[in-house]
Records
---
Amino acid sequence: MTIKIEKCTVEDLLELQAISQETFQETFKDQNSTDNMNVYLERAFNFKQLEKELSNPSSRFFFVYFNNEIAGYLKVNMDKAQSEEMGDELLEIERIYIKSKFQKHGLGKCLLNKAVETALECKKTKIWLGVWEKNENAIAFYKKKGFVQTGAHSFYMGDEEQVDYIMTKTLDGL
């Protein structure tokens, strides 16, 4: 079993789009209407939107490979690229998604570690993320990794307003 993490570039755009749509659908399709899912997928993962995000110097994407196959990805944001104004000392983990067939192999932990490594390299003191209040597995994972709920914000899935918990972890003492 080999695990490898590599930074994505604009040349990876089609692969990023495919895995973004696949993993998001796998994770959330059973809890959302098809119409709302389709609206969100088109808005969040269309070619131009992903190209814009990949080109932003304050955002970084990383693929995780399991036995040389793309198994998932990480997206982090800093400074003004963050989806909420949290301050320059924080790094946002906007997305950690793993294909369902690769879950339970420690890949989420590897991507979380990559986010922490990136935050420390960029002199950030905290990391934060938003996680859907109904995503109990993810909430438990983040709590186990030292995150605490520090707030909440609205997330729109199509025309449906949902609540994401904001969870934060201080990087001191790592």
Note: The radius of gyration is 15 Å.
---
Amino acid sequence: MEKWFEEGLLFIGDAAHAMSPVGGVGINLAIQDAVATANRLTAPLLENRSRSKT
């Protein structure tokens, strides 16, 4: 993907990384992406101050 986010949408895991599904590598990246995203967005979302940056 050239652009992995849109307003209100974030692609993670295999959708965002050029990885082969062989060996289950993509699911590990998806979990890491989900944790990093949650850590970064939890406070802004709870405080209603999230905005996408292009």
Note: The mean pLDDT is 75.
